[in-house]
Amino acid sequence: MLTTAIKTCWIFVKDSRFDRIWQLFTNNSPGSTDLKVVWKNNCQGERYLQIYDVTTEKRHYFDSEQEARIWLEKRYSS
């Protein structure tokens, strides 16, 4: 499980071409149980992270990478 968390954490590299390609690949992989991490902008233009957990079918929203990393650590430590 820790390797999945580590694999997910490196997706946080913002605005890189590789990141966009990786997200397209992982988001479209059939049967994938990995988290789907996407940077989005709200209507005020502020960036936030949306993490979709395929297993629980829940979306989680974070204002910063730090908040998301804390959530990830808690998720994989239990």
User: Roughly what fraction of the amino acids lie in strands?
Assistant: 15-25%
Query: Can you give the helix content as a percent range?
Result: 40-55%
Unreliable segments of 5+ consecutive residues: 9-15
* Helix/sheet category: alpha+beta
Keywords, please?
alpha+beta, single chain, 3-stranded antiparallel beta sheet, 78 residues
Describe the structure.
With 78 residues, the protein is an alpha+beta fold. 41% of the residues lie in helices and 23% in strands. The chain is built from three helices and three strands, in the order ααβββα. The chain has a three-stranded antiparallel beta sheet. A hairpin with a 5-residue loop joins strand 1 and strand 2. The longest helix has 13 residues. About 9% of the residues have low confidence.
